[in-house]
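ENTRY TYPE: protein
CONTENTS: sequence, structure tokens:
***
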Amino acid sequence: MLDVFRTASKTWIVRLLFALLGLSFITWGAGDVVRGGVGRSPAIEIGKTSMSAAEVMAEFKREVERLQPLFGGKLTPEDARKMGMLDRTIDSLIARTLIDEAARSLGLAATDETILRRVASNPAFKGPTGQFDRDVFRSRLARLGFTEDSFMKTERTNMVRNQMVETVAAGIGAPVALTDPLLAWREERRVAETFVVKDESTPLPPAPEAAQLEAYYKDNLSRFMAPEYRALTVLLLRPADVAGGIDIDEAMLQETYQQRLEEFSTPERRAVSQIVFDEQSAAAKATDLVTQGKDLAAVAKALGAEIIDLGTIEKGDLPEGLAEAVFKLSAGATGQPIKSALGWHVVKVSQVQPGRTRSFDEVKKQLEQDLRKEKSMDGLAELANKVEDALGGGATLEEAAKRHNLKTVKIAALDAQGRGPNGKPVADLPKSDQFLDVAFHTEQSTESPLTEVPNNGYFLLRVDGVTPPAPKLLADIKAEVVATWQAERRQEQARDKAQKLADRIKAGESAAQVAQSAGAKVETSKPFVREPGEGSALPATVIAELFKAQPGGVAVAPVQGGTLVARLTSVVPFDVNANPAVTNAARQRVSQAVATDIADQYIAALNASIGVKVDRPQLTREE
């Protein structure tokens, strides 16, 4: 029964659903990628549909770009291929094309009216008024490289695919005879008495004899290794290296102020609410009610209309015509009906926040700082080019630094975490996430590429020496090895002590009496489930043992600083009828898993009946 809760991410149907999700406009996916190739045999053939290798690789590239944010922008196509993303892309294309072929054979199609209604209800295309805005629609399509025709075609295809998937999985529910026993098993809870025998409750063993210590050291060499260290020469290019030659005069500041005037200007903003009517007569009636002293809420209630709160907006947030009228109203005023493409607007301005432009004197210091920084970075880029030219001409790192009055820094030893042999962080390293990565991926006696430190210059380094990982000499770390050996022996003593206490509980003594005799305190656990989540109060090994036991059963397991002894006190069965929310959610999950299995079989059947051919060698060459 546990199989119904398994991860289904590799099934055809889940790939299909991800494909549909990726194609939806809200996630700004690709357009219709399933088109016949030209000039080369197809890389994929599915029924009457074929795809070229270029089309498959274009879809793969889009998938890589879509996932870039999840990998911090560092996901390369090569890494993606190693992760199996190309294969998943191929599977996704095949799954949704099989659905398309099946839909065509059944004569399924989406009507123009249905598509238009779907597009009009899409939040991505709504303007400030909350209604469909054609200008917003066209703007967003243009930004994504869609024409109206190509987008509508894509939406039509997606809608039919969704209908097919929903039809296959519709109405499928797992039987109660399957879900309820499984739910009762998963949701059963147990309670235990626990106490900890602390390591420190046993005496610290004496230091081992020399021969015993030597043997322990040799058997555990991997625990006493020194990491790889690298000796570096680092050339830093910082804004201060060029700042001395930068002059900022009043004229430059004034010019920059004028260029950035919009940045220092806060436009007038107004808190606006409105009622939109289809008919002018209804809008006029609303205005009459306002004139009689009724507020907009009372007017809306009287006319059975809805108030649309636009929030605090700027003039540019409103359509032309409506904006001019609204921004002429005074605070608290309700204007005359205004006609727009959406209907007749009766608008109330409840608050006005006047616009303001900060003066030159107010921002002069900021302008000077920004301008100096900007020119420093420009000068730094020029200096970086000169340094690279010098190195390209055969100069050493030191020679290039001397030629341009720069300093190099010598680092005698640095590990991959930025620490020295003393275990402390090496001072004055460039504040860049890339520095250590560059340092440990540059070969010995080789200079790294010039690398930018965001907003703080550049660095370039040479690896002067590499000290590979090696065991620390016993003579140098004798105290550390002795302390480790003693701690392990102490832990063993505490475990032996805990096991003897557990045996006493098994023999019939109470956990409270046994714990008290050992100077420990008994605590009662919160009810726990058989599959604990992160941060569980009890170790997983103890939970597993207690779920095998009857009340009175005892389990022992190591914990931080000691050994835990636990005695099962009670079993709390799960009542499916008393917990309807949990029960219904679980039944739904199992039903979805069953539906996934059935839909998976449907896709497999389509694969067999329609036929799929994939030219893997061609796709490999295309990589």
In short: Residues 360-392 form the longest helix (33 residues). The chain is about 45% helix and 15% strand. The mean pLDDT is 84.
